[in-house]
Write a structure and sequence with these properties.
Blueprint lengths: L7 H32 L5 E7 L2 H11 L10 H7 L4 E7 L4 H12 L8 E6 L10 E7 L18 E7 H15 L8 H38 L12 H8 L2 H4 L8 H10 L5 H8 L4 H17 L13 H19 L12 H13 L6 H4 L4 H9 L1
Helix pairs in contact: 1-2, 1-4, 5-6, 9-12, 12-13
């Protein structure tokens, strides 16, 4: 039995009062996705956000009022059932990056209950004419973000949609024609054209990946034509940095792109702008010793209440750790005065540098280290 339409106006009035909270939440979630997930991990994607308008909310409620499965008994029930008041979209260049994005979302945010809620949708598996493909994640800001203007958004969540740029085209057109259409069901001709577009989109996803691979290969070939030593040529951007350094030490860092964004920024400021200059600054680069140090530092960070900062031994964090060993003072000097009131939050790299300095200069081991508990090693064993 459909819900009583007398609930619609009170629900709209409540949303009018609370909408600013969702605006703040969506804006901050989008910024975290853009800087701390995409840019930090060299993931090519476009991040956008939107907050449902009052008119859109009213339209949704009036559609729901015709459905037997939406038998709300109160305004609270309405708000509990709608997950997309605040929405963020991450449109990735490549389909293969979507799962990487999901993993970083899990590590970065918390969920409405506890863990981030993930819903993977590929309707083409059950309906060969439907090409909707996206991953939906329901997230809340992490505890350390709930300060200042964000101290009143702890009880609401944001829906993040992850899809490719090509899939986004089909998803939006089908949504407008099929889901929101005011003219009823699409005609057979519309359905056929949507199906044709769906095949084009799936093919386009593959072609984009092939195109990016071809571009990377062309870059290598053009460099070879100059008869210059590639190790002496400057990094063009973070993606070039990842491409040219990921083979360092026989690919001993298989997830090199993870956490590479801020590392790239700092090495450029330090003047380590080529593979040759960076490798020279890293020598000697003792992988086993660095992994062991990363594990011990990770245990210290976990004991200190910041497990999210723990180094990833499979990523470019090992390069950052080596630079901490040799150039910590320079790194901290470059970051001095950049963060604080009115200047923005400290970056992960800055927070790691500060805590590394505290760790190496401490007098006593942390209680967890004293007990011999190695959480980083435990986490790595569990992941493998």
């Amino acid at each position: 039995m459909p819900f009583d339409t007398s609930l619609i106006q009170p629900a709209i009035e409540r949303y009018r009062r609370e909408r600013d909270r969702y605006v703040k939440l969506a804006d901050r979630v989008a910024e975290i996705c853009r800087t701390e997930i995409c840019e930090q991990n060299a993931l090519r994607a476009q991040v956008t956000f939107r907050v449902k308008s009052q008119k859109s909310f009213e339209g949704k409620l009036r559609r729901f009022a015709t459905r037997d499965d939406r038998n709300y008994q109160s305004v609270d029930e309405i708000f509990q059932s709608i997950s997309d008041f605040a929405g963020v979209r991450i449109a990735a260049y490549q389909f293969d990056d979507c799962e990487r994005l999901v993993e970083h979302l899990r590590q970065t945010f918390r969920g409405p209950m506890e863990a981030v809620e993930i819903d993977t949708k590929d309707r083409h598996q059950h309906d060969r004419t439907n090409f909707y493909r996206a991953i939906h994640a329901q997230v809340c800001l992490p505890e350390d973000e709930l300060v200042g203007i964000y101290d009143n958004v702890d009880d609401i969540s944001c829906e993040i949609q992850i899809c490719t740029m090509m899939a986004h085209v089909w998803n939006e057109i089908e949504h407008d024609i099929g889901y929101k259409g005011e003219l009823g069901e699409p005609t057979p001709n519309e359905k056929k054209l949507l199906e044709m577009l769906g095949h084009t989109v799936r093919s386009g996803d593959n072609q984009i990946s092939m195109l990016l691979e071809a571009h990377a290969q062309r870059s290598v070939e053009e460099t070879a034509k100059t008869n210059q030593d590639p190790s002496g040529l400057e990094f063009r951007d973070v993606h070039d940095f990842v491409s040219r350094m990921q083979d360092f030490h026989d690919r001993s860092m298989p997830d090199f792109a993870d956490n590479s964004g801020q590392l790239f920024d700092i090495i450029m400021e330090m003047g380590l702008t080529t593979p040759a200059s960076l490798k020279a600054a890293l020598e000697p680069f003792d992988i086993p010793a660095l992994k062991e140090k990363a594990r011990r530092f990770g245990s210290y960070l976990r004991a200190d209440g910041v497990p999210q900062l723990a180094p990833n031994v499979k990523s470019s964090d090992l390069i950052l750790l080596r630079l901490f060993e040799t150039r910590l003072h320079q790194i901290r000097s470059l970051n001095k005065g950049r963060f604080g009131w009115g200047k923005g939050r400290p970056t992960r790299l800055h927070r790691l540098a500060v805590r590394y300095d505290q760790w190496v200069n401490r007098q006593e081991p942390s209680p967890v280290e004293a007990q011999g508990v190695d959480f980083a090693a435990e986490a790595e064993r569990a992941a493998s």
